[in-house]
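Example 373.
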Amino acid sequence: MNTRVTDTPSHPLTALGWNSSVAAAFDSVSHASEHLLVPGRVSAARRGGSVVNLPEEVPADHSPAVLKAARRDPTLAPCTGDWVAVRRSGDAWLVEAVLERSGTLVRQGIAKDSHDQVLAAGVDHVLICEAADQGPNMGRLERFLSLVRTGGATPVVAVTKAELAGDRLPEVVELVRSVSPGVDLHVVSAHTGEGLPELAERLRPGSTWVLLGTSGAGKSSLVNAIAGGDLMDTGEVRGDKRGRHTTTHRQLLLLPGGAIVLDIPGVRRIDVPGDTEGVDRTFSDVTDLAERCRFRDCAHESEPGCAVRAAVDEGELDLRRLERWNRLRREAERNRSRGDVRLRAERIRHWKNADRPGLRVLRTRRPAWRCRR
Ligand SMILES: Nc1nc2c(ncn2[C@@H]2O[C@H](COP(=O)(O)OP(=O)(O)OP(=O)(O)O)[C@@H](O)[C@H]2O)c(=O)[nH]1
Ligand SMILES: [Mg+2]
Ligand SMILES: [Zn+2]
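Predicted structure in complex with zinc ion:
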């Protein structure tokens, strides 16, 4: 986090987002430890060490216990936004434990043996940025919304670069609204200042926000415009409207208004995690209709009394939205079973590698049993 953290007048940990649930998580870790621990928040995580705010910024190594846990499961390594318990060890600081997380943004590991990646932790709100001049891409928005909900944070949508849409702006906003029922929507321009005061008003002191969107969506420009300075580098988009991945690392920043923001590198595509509930909450308009189907297990295909199909026939529900709901649900189910397979494989690996003298005895005896047969 930049040095401005120490300039804040109120309680230093409150300025970093400290609240009663973080305090309770810290208490349970600190009571169980033989060391004198202090709480801090990770503003930037690296392999083997982190920058931790106590609230002044210090570099801290990860303790052997933290490293061991992260080797077994990389999602357990400290990540940006995590609350941690640290202790002094000689001249250095050591991260002894990662406190129980709330509000995470997790990138699902797609390959069979790849792990999930925690992009951010301790997140209250995710501002999903969609550039007004590029679509909008409804499927991507639904995907981002599902992902945010699964992680337990509240999604808010920003249609960025509003002035570039010209006459199309109302249509773009309507389309975005149609895929984000119940979600706060801000129409903003970092260049003209449109919508910035309203958005800044939402960024309450001590709340943690992550900006999520494709490269070039204008996330860093938005942070700078709200901060009234150049906190983040920004980059021109290319001829094909794609961004240049200007932001390459993740670091918490404190806005002058007191909110904590994390502007992450642009994300083009991200899988929904193995959680159909996050998907269903994103498609609440469709699930509300499904409640009224005659059969509880209606597949919304050709069943009689299907309220979802009736809404499609009457033009109240876009068939493409129904198809995208089905597709995302299937993806979530697939990812859940993939996750289960991975978890099982990891458990077996862990069990095989564990140092268990009893197992060694068993192994040495086995040939003798075979001889007897
Ligand atoms: N016209 C206009 N251009 C904007 C606006 N906001 C951002 N841009 C431009 O869009 C380009 C990309 O902006 P960035 O803020 O770097 O985008 P980003 O989302 O942070 O991109 P990555 O860091 O690559 O993920 C830059 O050239 C900005 O000047 C806006 O409101 N209006
Ligand atoms: Mg950026
Ligand atoms: Zn139905």
